[in-house]
Amino acid sequence: MQAGRFRHFAAVDWSGAAGERQAGIAVALCGPEGDAPRLIRAGHRWSRADVLAWLVDALPEDTLVGLDLGISLPFADSGAFFPAWDASPPDARTLWAMIDTICATDPHLGATAFVDHPEASRYFRRHGGREGERFGANGQPGGRGRFRVTEHAQQLVGCKPYSNFNLVGAAQVGKSSLTGMRVLHRLGGTLPVWPIDPLPATGSAIVEIYTSLAAIEAGRSSGRTKMRTRADLNAALAAFDSPPFHARVPLSDHTTDALLTATWLRRAATREELWAPNALTDKIARTEGWTFGAI
Description:
- This protein has a domain of 158 residues: 2-Layer Sandwich (Nucleotidyltransferase, domain 5), CATH 3.30.420.
- It is built from nine helices and seven strands, in the order βββαβααββααβαααα.
- β2 and β3 form a beta hairpin.
- α2 packs across α5, α6 crosses α8 and α7 runs parallel beside α8.
- The chain starts with 7 loop residues before the first strand and ends in an 8-residue tail after the last helix.
């Protein structure tokens, strides 16, 4: 493992909301030498297509990119993403392709067509009290929904994950995850996605991140992971031995999430144990993926 070889560290706070340009998307980058993180295109209202183009055309060499979304859906709990659906994909990359194909006419890399699909909708909790009969654990309705193995690991370090099959509520990540999977499919393998792909010996790579993990490691409580002031951000950055963020730009919880997590990635990438979680098997890697930092 040569996890310490990366020269740049990027974090993308993502959004699955409807529409082209999203206030909830922010991109931050830092180098390896202890410099303060910076925002990419500060003040720009990003679209999902913009982020895809940046990853393809403008990403610095040897960058570890963290995407704040779920890179797959639960599989291990039921032996399938969609048990009882004969078209259920066998692995994450096939899942991405399926979602992108079904959503081909959705604008702005949206995923409405997939969650409204007559078969797929049986597994999601949607707005308006629409809950598929197979949303819950063991193929039953109700409850918090199904979770990946990595989300159980997130809970052990104090995070409060939501099921990627849940599309309701301010903290849900289902829409972000599904739209993100369309982006991952469109990258076409040009950027490896760990652990679905092996970590390459050279070049850039993508990992799934959960920004709350970075905030908790910086000393924030699990109920106070969001930062909206420069003072809170700089106190958290100091926990990772980073200089303060001085750029005079408006801050939101999305930009602070990206700035702190890019800085956390710089330190976390050198920790060999984070690349080898105890519960991560080859099959889980191919199907569910993993959240970097959850062990």
